[in-house]
Model the fold of this input.
Amino acid sequence: MIGGYMGKVLQVDLSTGAIESYSLPERMLELYVGNKGLGARLLYDLLPPMTDPLSEKNVFIVTTAPLTGAGAPSSNRFNITTKSPLTGAIVNSNCGGNFGVFLKRAGYDSLIITGKASKPVYLKINEEGVSIEDASELWGLDTEKIQEKLTAGTGKLVIGPAGENLVKYAAVFSQERAAGRGGVGAVMGSKNLKAVIAGGKKRVPVAHKDKFKDACRKWRQLSREHPATGEELPRFGTSIFVNKCNATHTLPTRNFLHGSYDEADAVSGETLAEKHLIKNIGCYGCPIACGRQVQLHGKNIKGPEYETVGLFGPNLMNADLKAIIELNYQADLLGMDTISLGNTLGFVMEAREKGLIKTDLAFGKIDRLSRTLDDIAYRRGLGDDMAEGVRFLSQKYGGEEFALHVKGMELASYEPRGAVGQGLGYAIGSRGGCHIAAGYPIYLEANGPITVDPLATTGKPGLVVLNQTTMEAVSTIGCCIFSVYMFLPKALLELNARSPLISKIVRSTFLYGGNIIGKALSWPAWTLPVPAPFFMLPQVQTHAHCTGERYTLGKMMELGKRVVSMDRIFNLREGLTGADDTLPKRLTDELQRAEEPRSKVTLSKMLPKYYNFRGWTPAGVPREKTLRTLQIEEEPMLPQTAMGAASTV
Amino acid sequence: MVEVKLFASLRTVAGEKGFLTDAASVGELLREAAERYGEDFAKRLQIATVLVNGKNIAHLRWKRTRLKDGDVVSLFPPLAGG
Done:
């Protein structure tokens, strides 16, 4: 058996109460590994095409990766995959809470939930057995209180009132960490599933124990010594990007009307650290510990992340950091994604200014926001419409040109008219306007230490393909995306800052070499038989020692490419097309800055090349040859028994 | 005058948010900052990103970049976040 796996998947049908477990075919694990890759494949196999996401036929899948719970740094993540009620596309929502680790301790790699319970229930999983328990007493509790009520010493997966009330961007929580995006919480709510708890004492089997331990030790050291992951991120948290994005015109301000905000520093990571930080907190087993613990009304709580600060702060013209802390905590308790929420508030504020919606919500006016959050979670008044997200609001009230979403998912906190590759990433992201699905090219365009011309379209398709492929692979093997920051090693940063000539070479490699990189990435794995450099990608070697599988750079990249195309064929099956790879008009037609004629996202210059590098047709459909090379098969890979169990739903 | 803005650990080490200078070039400005805030700061400057009016100048004229009245120079250490 491949190392890192417990060898069993648990499948629960909430309609019939049937509980069964089975093993996945080894070939499926070799090709799709875990987390979002495996989740995508399982969803493709199990979900009947064109299923309503909030119907009992939708499938809710929790996957882990071989590294989850194995003891590697920044690698205990789990993933939730389902069909999104917000977008109708695939959603894979990654979380740093401890549920994945405890699921494996109970003896399972993945959990598949089908059907719908007739009354509120929670699921209890341990080594001795699995049971469906009554949750009538727990229904209505917020995400914190319910976790306090459930058995101590277990990993928990819960929803708050927003999930119960089917808010389209309701999140799922594990500890204080969220699987935030795409409404995975609403899918749990639609199944009357309030929580899942898991626990046990089983250990993850590692293939090459000594080599694995050594690789983990070296990785920790690298992470500690890297200036980004060892110092800046732990010291200032993710909001460190507020000031950098502000300086580079990529900080969404006033519902993405502008890319910078005069009062950005008041809500920055520096200010958060100086005025509010009590201590760092991290995802389960992560040495970076970029999370913030702050104090609110005498209580220690989780502080806001960059995305929340950006979208509750500058995007709403709000410079009150304490108010952001309070709203973030409230949104967490209610169980909502703060990215979609911040965008929804921004849209309504602008729609009011334009006379499209009657409301007292207004930019810079924060005293009404707390009540609005409750209205959304409990679907009261205008809150009922706001709970459907920006796309719905714009279709009902008008204002589609400033409805900041892609495929129905609201944009993350990066204004792409200041970094046009990020705009391309948003447009093609499988789950919609998400910075992670976009491949986060902005790091090499504007907010990272080495950046190319952020407004040039040349080379960007290749850059997006490179970033996206790397991040999908790293995410699929269970690691935090932040561990990819070591992709630019300290030595390169020192070299880059030494002379303009070296900087020019590094920059040109990324920008003008982008198309060569993109083309090279369309070749099969065997053309790149070299090992992944440890100082850039320690995740790969650690994963290889855990599983006992040999991994080359080519094989790793192929994994990333496979996941991107797998997501794509799922979305195409669900009725999405290349026409959905687009951005709102504000970003494609309006200049961000009148004095800068390139400050808009010209997708037509980038999309065709991106499709070509991916091996997709000009209409954005993966070619047969591409699917063959990536070994993506139409036929289900799951055992017939599992397929049968799903089809009885 | 040129406004120099300091961020993240550079701000912590300097103990202030920035300063005003008459420096005529980025090189001159960096030398002044290094002298002003000491050895630890100077070491960090070696891997810092320098933005002049929001634009990264590492690949352009870098330290020879001329500065004029009203320019804003932002100094960032290598960041990670998001």
